[in-house]
């Protein structure tokens, strides 16, 4: 007799494409079809839905589900979740992001879902917010962890920030994000497709959402200082900053670039499909984020063998533990970032050292195979 497949519903607040959405997509499309029946539920945004439908994964949109607090919409979302769980009778619900975490764990408990998993992709109280809002967010995260049967932390830093909270002992598991083999374009091919008139230049680059949390304004300020200090050299005239990504801060960043008179030297390329395959176009990768958990972009840049400069925030030091693997800078410190950029640009031997080192570390410690196996083990062990 064939064993009944395990029904699992993944839920995430936004259907736009980002790190948490990629996490959901890769788990949903990688579970063995013979063992799991999968559905993904989300709110606003359609990028995730399109990718899942291409992979023949069931999807459902809850129109009232959004990131911002709205009592009327949130109550409607809660009722929609409760009805969904009662109708579908899933064996497991796996929740991702703060809003769906609170609403989903409560609805899941009331609906009698047997296994409720929540993944902490980072805690929203780490963002720059009013103190009272932070206290409310902390309470919301604590309730989510209490109501979930198990919480996955994607980095040691994410784990440690909540591990000492009341009544959460043995309810949190560390499972690092992991990545699969990536088929990168060569440096020349990637540059030909992105900016064919700048193939011979020196590219500083990043892949990031155009959002305050990503610290791109800090990077632009540091780059402007760097250019000014190197104007007398040929190297200074060959430097370009290329930013792949889109987001709500585009207008603000464009104004900053114009104010620094760096139009044409700092290029906002916008959204690029499967951006990671273009990573080898960069000579150096920079991630100047104000807050992070365990960023896929950094894992991918390391896998590509790029020299990396990143903020010393969140789980990033777990990827780059010391200077053997890249350079870390204090979050928001423009002068320190400029100094690190200048060092990395001018020290060819150092770039040649850290690139292969970080690639070895990523392949050894942060594979998707390890992540998937540990997650499936958790699905089967939670009571």
From TrEMBL:
Glycosyltransferase subfamily 4-like N-terminal domain span? 17-181
Q: Cite the Pfam families for this sequence.
A: Glyco_transf_4, Glycos_transf_1
Q: What is this protein called?
A: Glycosyl transferase family 1
What CDD domains does the annotation carry? GT4_CapM-like (cd03808)
The residue ranges of the Glycosyl transferase family domain are 204-357
Q: Which SUPFAM superfamilies match?
A: UDP-Glycosyltransferase/glycogen phosphorylase (SSF53756)
List the molecular function annotations (GO) for this entry.
glycosyltransferase activity
Source domain of life is Bacteria
Q: Which InterPro entries match?
A: Glyco_trans_1, Glyco_trans_4-like_N
